[in-house]
Every structure is written in C-alpha cells, then in structure tokens.
Amino acid sequence: MLLRLAYLGVTNAFAMLRLLPMSDREKEVEILALRHQIAVLERQLGKRRVRFAPSDRAFLAALVHRLPRDVLRRVRLLVRPDTVLRWHRDLIARRHAAKSRPRSPGRPRTVHSIRALVLRLARENPSWGYRRVHGELLMLGVKVAASTVWEILKEAGIDPAPERSSSTWAGFLRSQADALLACDFFETVTLTGARLYVFAVIEHASRRVRILGASAHPSASWVVQAAKNLIMDLEDAGCRARFMIRDRDGKFPELFDAILKDAGIEVVLSGVRMPRMNSPASAYAGVNVWAASSTNTNMPRDLHGGGYRHAQDLGG
Questions:
Q1: Interacting residues of 219 by C-beta distance below 8 A, sequence separation 6+
Q2: CB 309 within 8 A of CB 207
Q3: Cα separations (Å) of 209 from 87, 124, 159, 203, 306?
Q4: Which of 106, 170, 187, 253 would staple 220 via disulfide (CB 3.0–4.6 Å)?
Q5: What is the number of other CB atoms lying within 10 angstroms of the CB of residue 92?
Q6: pLDDT in tens, 256-294
Q7: pTM over 0.85
C-alpha cells in the first residue's frame, strides 16, 4: 500500500506541473470534460458502486480533506462527501492506533529460574496447591502472582494438589510390590471326580506362586496350619512381606489374620465384589494348574510365574 501511495503521489505531482502553463479557460474546459466523464461512468454503473483500493482512498482523502464541507458537496466525485470524510477519519484512527500499539504485547515471560523453582516445590510437596507455593515463594523473596504460579503448573501438566496427593490402588500396588502377598482359594476337580479347594499364595514382585495345600474340606484349623507353614517358608526364603491381600471368604478364620499379624504381615481385605483389588490371585485361581489337579498329597510347594502369566494371557 505504501508503494502504491507513493506512486500515486509522484504521478499526480507531474500532473500538477502539467497544469501550471494552462490558462484558466483551459482548466475550466478540462474540469467540465472530467465532470461529464464522471456523469457517464455513474450512468453506466447504475446501482453498482466503484471499488476503491486502500491507496486510492488514502490519496483522495488526503487531497480533499482541507476543503470545507459546503465546497466539498459541490465537487463532482464518484462517492459522497461524507464517505471521503469517513475515509479521512479512518486514516487518522489507524495512524494513532499504530503509534499507540505496544512494541512487546503482554507481560514479559517468567524467568526460567522462577519456573524451575515453582515446579520443584510442586513436585517435592504433592500436598501443596498453587496458593501454598505462591506463599512459599513470597517468603523466599520471589515476587510473582498466584495466577502465574497456576499457569506454570498447568503448562507443565501438574495436576491440582488433591489429585497429586491422593494415592490410588494401582499406585499402592506398584510402590509396595516387593512387600505384597495375595492369597485365594480355587476349586479343582481331580480325575476321580473329587472336588478339592487349593490354597495358593502369590508374590506380587516376583509372581512366585506358593501352593500351601489342597483339601476337600478346608476347616479353620487346616487354614491356620497353612498360615503357619507360609510364615516358616517366608522366613526360610528371606522374604520380607508386609501386606497380605485376601478376599472376604468365610474360610479364613480370625486366627489366620492374627498369625500373620504376629509375623509383621498386615492383612488387607479386598472390596465387596471387587476382584480387581486381588487380581493376581484371582487370575491364578481362574486356571487349573497341574499340581492342584493331581490326587497326590505331596504337592510341590513352589510354582514360578508361568501359571500366573498364563492366567493373565487368558484375560484374568
């Protein structure tokens, strides 16, 4: 647009030089001829309007803006005089808007050191919200708005404090895998048609399965003895379990939990109708292992993770 405006200014300057040697009569004749040509163009256009380029508008507005309104109304133009005045007002408004526009829009970006400090405080203190982090920054002499702290945490993908500080069941299992055991009963039918209840314990970290025994009638004394055998096996293997996950089956007597508690193992009950809370044991219990299907009472005490992995492949 600036190049086009400069071109119009130069060409009209040469046109003005051409008018200097002309007499007043010649100028009046040319004015009448130009007015007649404008009338012919208006008649041919009809209801259509002439489209002016931005450079043409700017040049025409600058050329006639000093003329009084009454004189401007007598001048023959393709547009109304009010339109020319509006072009001039728009030109002045854009000029002032360009001068008042700030060089750097918005507030300056927070320095990298402050952003790193905010993220460190949020990660090392999961229970702190953005207001608490803002208060700690003020105590350290770092002046930053609370909304800025919130924006930094949001851009980094850090959840609000309640979601960061709350622990999920999956997170508990991952963090305590080395100290978790899970037990469950599952039924199997031998070749002779006898139904047996097999008591199995699985270690979360190594997926090592321990078959504690099988019985057609798992009484309370039988389950208690299985718990004692489990404690001795864990001590011999050097396993330091802290939690035992089991369901709310009635086969587990209160003495079963007491024996595990004396050994330093806390019993964690799964939710009602929530097998996912005891998924490793439930998955293993969903598959008939060859050791449990045998009628031999001398069952192997340890089965490694193959059975569990097979159960997981089947969707357990």
A1: none
A2: yes
A3: 87, 37, 38, 7, 9
A4: 253
A5: 12
A6: 999 999 999 999 888 776 666 676 666 665 544 444 444
A7: no
